[in-house]
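anyone seen this seq b4? input:
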Amino acid sequence: QVQLVESGGGLVQAGGSLRLSCAVSGRTFSSSAMAWFRQAAGKEREFVAAVRWSAGDTYYADPVKGRFTISRDNAKNTVYLQMNSLQPEDRAVYYCAANRGGYMTTLSRRYDTWGQGTQVTVSS
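predicted toks r here
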């Protein structure tokens, strides 16, 4: 069982930046793919970015390409989401997710472990 704890959310002005962190623990960590999803009020949960731990491969949803960067720190067992040029449309609860089989996918139902979420609010 993988355990995930997000942090780093908050309030930021449009054009600003935030860095989200996801602390990872558990026996399946080394074989997991990690992802960030977000869910705005009244909307469907949507994929943001993913990274495969072993090779560092990354994949991004079109709306965040060039603005967001997903990365992982082996020593700290932590996954990050650096968010730059934030816009009001980015306002959502951001969730960290893990796939213990190591598969990167945009489908939320394929992930078996989720964090509690962290709120990101962007004001105009």
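The chain has no helices and eleven strands. The chain has a mean pLDDT of 93. kinda curious what u guys think
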